[in-house]
Design goal:
Blueprint lengths: L17 E2 L3 E2 L3 H23 L10 H48 L11 H32 L7 H9 L1 H24 L7 H34 L1
Antiparallel strand pairs: 1-2
Helix pairs in contact: 1-2, 2-6, 3-5, 3-6, 5-6
Length: 234
């Protein structure tokens, strides 16, 4: 028995980009811009129509908004205390909203919308902001001399080791999210390439890879960011 295998290009990354069976995938920059614009529109609508109607006894949309904001505040405060926790809650909420919106666009645009975090440029940008915050809060807490001294604690011998470890933080954060989000997207593209055989399974797994899986990556990114900042200020 002879088996012939046709060779074809499975993926062209990071832009282009026909993935698995010629499905068109938008450039990640387009998805990032659409996600950012959608979030700004939602924020503007909330400011104009929702916030003026807030009452002491929350209901409806106010319940949802307060649940999200207070949930993030409780988590950041639980890790860093009232001071830093309140300061970092808006940044962490922004990260969660941006990545979550990208996941939503992927969910409603299977085969068309490629989430921005599946591009290393996006995740490295987010990780770089976190890295800057680590240094800013570390210096703010200890001063420049104190921050440098922390690299040589408990012995000056470990200074280069701690320095390299610190410089590896943005690389680690970026590659972790990039690999997981891209992996989930590729799995879904493979499943939807055989959707003609079964639509139920791809649809079911889509809820996992684009909702639960994306949410898990957001949680990991935020948790690690808070842990690195906590280490810098302790």
């Amino acid at each position: 028995m002879n088996i012939s295998i046709d060779t074809e290009v499975l993926a062209h990354l990071p832009d282009g980009i026909a993935l698995f069976g010629g499905m068109p995938i938008t450039n990640t920059l387009v998805t990032a811009l659409v996600a950012s614009a959608a979030l700004m529109v939602l924020a503007l609508l909330a400011r104009i129509f929702a916030l003026p109607r807030f009452r002491e006894q929350p209901a409806g949309v106010q319940n949802v908004l307060e649940l999200m904001v207070e949930g993030m505040q409780r988590y950041t405060i639980g890790r860093l205390g009232d001071g830093l926790g309140n300061q970092l809650a808006p940044y962490m909420f922004t990260i969660a909203a941006f990545i979550g919106m990208n996941g939503f666009l992927e969910l409603i645009g299977i085969g068309v919308a490629r989430p921005a975090p599946s591009d290393l440029n996006c995740t490295f940008g987010l990780a770089l902001v976190t890295f800057v915050l680590i240094q800013v809060y570390g210096i703010k807490k200890k001063g420049i001399k104190g921050r440098l001294k922390s690299y040589a604690t408990p012995s000056p011998v470990i200074f280069p080791i701690k320095l390299v470890t610190d410089l590896a933080v943005p690389v680690s954060l970026a590659c972790r999210m990039f690999g997981n989000i891209l992996g989930g997207m590729i799995v879904m593209e493979l499943l939807y390439s055989v959707a003609a055989l079964s639509f139920v399974l791809p649809a079911f797994l889509s809820a996992y890879f684009t909702v639960f899986h994306t949410g898990m990556q957001v949680f990991i990114f935020i948790t690690l960011s808070l842990a690195f900042i906590e280490e810098a200020v302790e």
